[in-house]
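Quick one, C-alpha cells below:
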C-alpha cells in the first residue's frame, strides 16, 4: 500500500534558476527544425526532384505531428513523469533532425515527422513546467519561454542559408541544428529534479481528470490557438518563397523571415507579464491580430513594394503566440488542468492548423499565383482575432 501511495503522489520539477535556463534553452530549439526549411525549400525541391505538393506535405507535417503528439503528451507525462517526457522530446528532436538529411524525399519526410513529434511533446509539456514550477512568475517565465521560441525561429531562417553556404549544401546546413538541441538535452538532464507537489500546481491523487471536450471556453482557446498556428506555419513555410517569386534573393528572403520571427522576441518579453498583471489579454491579442492582418494584406497586394514593413507587421501578428500560451496557463487553475487544456488546445488546434500550409500550397498550384492563398489567410487572421478576444477574458475552464 505504501508503494502504491508513492506512485500516486504527484511530483513537479523544482523551480530553480537553472531549471529556468533549461526551459529557455529547450524552447530555443522548438522552431529551427521548422523555420530552417523555408529558405532552403527551393534548393531541396531541386535537389530531390520534388513537386510543390511534396513541399506542401513537408510544411504540413509539423501541424499534423503537433496535433497527434500534443493529444498524447498529457497521457505520456502522467505515466512517465514530466521530466522524462521532456527528455524524450529532446531526443526525438535531435534524432529527427539528423535522420532527415540522410536520404531522399521519403527520408526527409520521415525525419521531419520524428523531429516535429519531439517538438510537439515539448510544446505541450513546457507550459506545464512553467505553471507548476514557476507558479508565482507565470507571466515572466512564459515571456522568456516564448521569447526563446521566437528567437529560435528567427535564427533558424536567418542563419541556415549562411550555414548552407559554409558547409556546402542544404543537408549539412539543416543537420547543424542538431548540435543545439543536443546541448539542450544535456542541460535538461543535468538540472531537471523533482519534488512532491504541494497541492497548488498539480492534481491531488484523488482528483479525477476531467475532459474539456464539452467546455465552451476550452474550445474557444483551442480555436484561437489553432488559427494563430495556421498563420504562423504558413508564414514560416511559404513567406520566403513568395518573396523569392517577387524578385527578392533567397538570402534576403531568409533574413526577412528571420526578422518576422525575431520581432516576436521583445513582444514576448514585455506583453505576457503585462497581460498577466492586468488580468485580461483580449485587447493585446486584438492589437497584434490587426498587425498580422495588415502584413498579410501587404504581402498579398505588393510583396516587393515594402517587404521590410510587411515582415515587421507579420512578426507582430505572429507574436500573438506568446499570448496564446499565456491564456492556456491563466485559463486553468491547476497544473493538471493546464496539461489537459494545453494538450487539447495544441493537439486539436494544430490539427486544424495542419490543413493551412497544405491548402495554401494547393490553392497556389490551382491558381498559379498567390492572391487566392493570401485571401484565405486573411479570413484565418480575422477569425483568430474574434476567438482570441474571447479567449483573453479572465475566466477558468
Amino acid at each position: 500500500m505504501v508503494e502504491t501511495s508513492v506512485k500516486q503522489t504527484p511530483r513537479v520539477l523544482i523551480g530553480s534558476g537553472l531549471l529556468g535556463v533549461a526551459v529557455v534553452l529547450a524552447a530555443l530549439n522548438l522552431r529551427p527544425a521548422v523555420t530552417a526549411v523555408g529558405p532552403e525549400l527551393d534548393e531541396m525541391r531541386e535537389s530531390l526532384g520534388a513537386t510543390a505538393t511534396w513541399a506542401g506535405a513537408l510544411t504540413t507535417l509539423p501541424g499534423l505531428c503537433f496535433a497527434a503528439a500534443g493529444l498524447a503528451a498529457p497521457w505520456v507525462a502522467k505515466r512517465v513523469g514530466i521530466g522524462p517526457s521532456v527528455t524524450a522530446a529532446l531526443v526525438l528532436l535531435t534524432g529527427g533532425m539528423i535522420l532527415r538529411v540522410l536520404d531522399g524525399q521519403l527520408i526527409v519526410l520521415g525525419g521531419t515527422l520524428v523531429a516535429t513529434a519531439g517538438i510537439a511533446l515539448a510544446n505541450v509539456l513546457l507550459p506545464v513546467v512553467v505553471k507548476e514550477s514557476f507558479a508565482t512568475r507565470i507571466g515572466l517565465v512564459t515571456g522568456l519561454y516564448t521569447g526563446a521560441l521566437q528567437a529560435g525561429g528567427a535564427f533558424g531562417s536567418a542563419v541556415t542559408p549562411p550555414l548552407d553556404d559554409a558547409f556546402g549544401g542544404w543537408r549539412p546546413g539543416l543537420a547543424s541544428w542538431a548540435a543545439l538541441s543536443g546541448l539542450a538535452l544535456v542541460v535538461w538532464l543535468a538540472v531537471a529534479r523533482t519534488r512532491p507537489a504541494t497541492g497548488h500546481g498539480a492534481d491531488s491523487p484523488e482528483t479525477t481528470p476531467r475532459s474539456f471536450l464539452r467546455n465552451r471556453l476550452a474550445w474557444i482557446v483551442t480555436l484561437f490557438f489553432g488559427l494563430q498556428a495556421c498563420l504562423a506555419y504558413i508564414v514560416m513555410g511559404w513567406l520566403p518563397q513568395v518573396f523569392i517569386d517577387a524578385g527578392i534573393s533567397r538570402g534576403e528572403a531568409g533574413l526577412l523571415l528571420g526578422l518576422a520571427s525575431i520581432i516576436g522576441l521583445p513582444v514576448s518579453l514585455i506583453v505576457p507579464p503585462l497581460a498577466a498583471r492586468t488580468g485580461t489579454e483580449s485587447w493585446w491579442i486584438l492589437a497584434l491580430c490587426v498587425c498580422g492582418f495588415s502584413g498579410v494584406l501587404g504581402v498579398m497586394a505588393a510583396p516587393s513594394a515594402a517587404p521590410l514593413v510587411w515582415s515587421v507587421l507579420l512578426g507582430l501578428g505572429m507574436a500573438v503566440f506568446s499570448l496564446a500560451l499565456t491564456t492556456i496557463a491563466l485559463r486553468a487553475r491547476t497544473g493538471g488542468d493546464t496539461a489537459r487544456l494545453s494538450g487539447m488546445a495544441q493537439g486539436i488546434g494544430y490539427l486544424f492548423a495542419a490543413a493551412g500550409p497544405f491548402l495554401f500550397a494547393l490553392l497556389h498550384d490551382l491558381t498559379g499565383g498567390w492572391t487566392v492563398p493570401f485571401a484565405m489567410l486573411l479570413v484565418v487572421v480575422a477569425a483568430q482575432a474574434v476567438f482570441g478576444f474571447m479567449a483573453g477574458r479572465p475566466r477558468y475552464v
